[in-house]
């Protein structure tokens, strides 16, 4: 019996045979990254039911020297969940909401719970869990923590790191760290949970967490604004922030090309403004203050912005159904790009004061590099985070276009780096940006990351080859 077949027998004995998948058709969906950029390989997909079973699997793999790649919803966008060899540890069965505590405003959930389920559980108690991503129906809390997910609520509530109070983690040797604290104040030594948030499965397997809840807004208003340029978007953001403070809960940027392709591929969604504009912003104000009127506040703020010349046209929704339609325009933007052929993507952030300069410089440089290129630069403008995506020129062969990814990385990432920004704003490093991190990362910071990895996972068995590890060749691109 080989080490791997012996391991699989042990796992099947403990978890039950139907939770150790080896048939090619069963494991196939776990081998491919969401956008289809990489295809990996795995001995098996293993589906433990609880923390004890996760600890058993990790300890058994450590003994056998077999690598583990954790997976939640497999919606990650940097190839972080792609295995090559080893086993996929699928956390989907750890999906319980263990407790909701409105007094301390916390929720305790297992790693495989879907983000949408956690939002619904909070809502059922009259509370808000504010992390919000277009993938929320498929992604898991474990994946959100492991990638330090961002999304549309960061402006008001912060990213996943800001929303976590405690963690339970299975370490590389199979021991369980019980850090499931709900304390708001706890300075007893190093804050270990933050090591695991954003570590993309390379330092430990997150099995449960205590998360922060917030009061549910009593009033919210959503508007769609036509703008002449990124610079007027920045002026509008500044004006709205000044007027609304923390009640400005979203400011999303959509270029004309982005709105055009959403409306082309999702004809059921209504066109929000009659005329064409160079750019658009989806803005949201919401408040928990009793008696406050978000709609009235947004109307006043947008009227002032029109008077000051920042805004060409604007519409404010009159109903929650219209609010959801406007949000659908933004949420469909990621999906519809794939219907326009190959897409080269960059998830970057720059200091807010440079965001208009960044957009002007990067768009000009990319368009000059390849005539016919269609730039779809959109996203969480208020966080300084742009998804700087490039759709292939019409008629170009997709594979030939995707081969240019490195060439455009250099153009976009050099500009970002030169402005003091980050080449990885919210999706993480995974496989796709591993070499970029080495190129742009601070050498001392990289050294610290490698030392942490070596200390917590000395045999390089947890998601090897991702973030900073230097291991065998990546799986072949599709
Ligand atoms: P997976 O894809 O399964 O895993 C992601 C990484 O985390 C992998 O490295 C994996 O090994 C590791 N991991 C997973 N679970 C665990 C665990 N329990 N313990 C340790 N490591 C683990 N992201 C944003 O930040 N903002 C967005 O606005 C956003 N929009 C998106 C829109 C679409 C349409 C899609 C498809 C994705 C989007 N994403 C976004 C990316 C993705 O949804 C998030 O990264 C999400 O947090 C991943 O969760 P998941 O459960 O799918 O994780």
Automatic annotation (TrEMBL):
Keywords: FAD, Flavoprotein. It comes from the Bacteria. InterPro entries: FAD-bd_oxidored_4_C (IPR004113), FAD-bd_PCMH (IPR016166), FAD-bd_PCMH-like_sf (IPR036318), FAD-bd_PCMH_sub1 (IPR016167), FAD-bd_PCMH_sub2 (IPR016169), FAD-linked_Oxase-like_C (IPR016164), FAD-oxidored/transferase_4 (IPR051264), Oxid_FAD_bind_N (IPR006094). SUPFAM superfamilies: FAD-binding/transporter-associated domain-like, FAD-linked oxidases, C-terminal domain. Residues 38-216 form the FAD-binding PCMH-type domain. Belongs to the FAD-binding oxidoreductase/transferase type 4 family. This is FAD-binding oxidoreductase. It comes from Methylobacterium marchantiae.
